[in-house]
Amino acid sequence: MKPHRSPLGLIVLWQLYQGPMHVYRMQKLFQDTGKDRVVNVRSRASLYQTVERLERHGLVEVSDTGRTEGYPDRTLYALTDAGRETAREWLREMLRNTEGEYPEFVAALSILFGLPPDEARSELELRAHRLKAALEATQDSLANAPAELPRLFLLEEEYRKTLLEAELSWLRGVIDDLREGRLTWNEEWLRALFARFLETDHEPNQEDS
Asked: Relative to the CA of 186, which of 46, 86, 103, 137 has its CA 20 to 30 Å away?
């Protein structure tokens, strides 16, 4: 069965292009290269789960088991030929694909009316505050990058900065509209709107079939 692609799996496969390594080294590379800002690596356990899944599909294999006195055994994993080709295939697909991405925030926006306007505005203000902090961190990361580092290795930070700037600008506009009452709702208005635009459920009858 063809393995399901994942951002974490892709980064792990590309890390192994450098040579065999153990999961501890992978996790440190995520931190050292900023990839923990690109994919969600909650814990080393999630890395182990990903590596085990890749191993089951024959994309990585055990290369060696290192033993150091006073430390647990560390299994070295290596990339297989199938893993090398799969990494390229996943990379091509993820670069061109625009489908199947369903962020939580978009889902929440679709039912923003589930909260009173003032409460919705308060939550969006908290999001704007966090976006501002994330944008400042990204700007610092770009500003402090070594001058000799090629732009190729900063593209994800450039992209993140562009997205953060765009979302923050849009979000501040929505917050202003909520604050000034240009965007608002209430229960009575919502009920009238639903009655007007949403079809009511009905039992199928002979004419429907």
From this structure: 103
